[in-house]
Amino acid sequence: MRVLAISGSLRQDSYNTALLRSAAELAPDGVAFELHDRLAEIPPYDQDIQDEGAPVCVEDLRDRIAAADAVLIATPEYNGSLPGLLKNALDWASRPFPDNALRNKPVAVVGASTGAYGGIWAQAELRKVLGIIGARVVEGDVSIGHAQEHFDSDGRLADAELRLRIGELLRDLAAQVELRAGLQSV
Q: Whole domain around residue 93: which residue ranges?
């Protein structure tokens, strides 16, 4: 199974990117992770540009989503919602609608923040956006509040309970991939 991991944070020492790297370490056998780290290159969504042909960086994102069996997105919370760059990337990825790369794609959402609630509002907004796009959003919640207390100095998720929860979410994501494959073969 191939998982495309997308961090909604651009910060070099992002807890959300560290969370995705930890998830890759915790993934079951046979699961390969690819980190997409080019959100900053994606221009603001513009239907006129879309009609003329999407930029290369947008086509690259769409191709990576299409090639993946599943997507794992880690989002910080900015002012009670998801980051604009992440929303913008999803707006591009949602085209052409309804036959976009995220349509029926299993997607899991996680998040980390230095605040007390771990970005739960951003994750809720992200799940809503993904559902409207047509993704198959996996149930499950991993919100890491006070993230600075749960990662070690090497950026690894050190909290054993959170590591278990990430592992469970990845198993649920893999189960959705298997379910989707079964539905497509019918």
A: 2-185
Total tally of structural domains belonging to the chain = 1
Give the CATH number of the domain where residue 121 resides. 3.40.50.360
CB 83 within 8 A of CB 76: yes
pTM above 0.90, yes or no: yes
Neighbours of 173 (CB within 10 A): 25
Per-residue pLDDT of the chain (186 residues; tens, 9 = 90+): 999 999 999 999 999 999 999 999 999 889 999 999 999 999 999 999 988 999 999 999 999 999 999 999 999 999 999 999 999 999 999 998 888 999 999 999 999 999 998 999 999 999 999 999 999 999 988 999 999 999 999 999 999 999 999 999 999 999 999 988 877 765
